[in-house]
Amino acid sequence: MIAVITGDIINSQHADTEVWITRLKHLLEKWGSAPHTWEIYRGDEFQFKCNIDDVFWRFLAIKSLIKSVENLDVRMAIGIGEESFSSEKITESNGTAYVNSGRLLNDLKNDGHTVAIKTSTDPVDRDLNILLKWSSKDFDNWTMATAEIIHEMIMNQDITQEDLAKRFAISQSSVSQRLKRANYELIVETNQYFRKKISEL
Question: Which InterPro entries match (predicted)?
Answer without folding.
Answer: Lambda_DNA-bd_dom_sf (IPR010982), SatD (IPR032580)
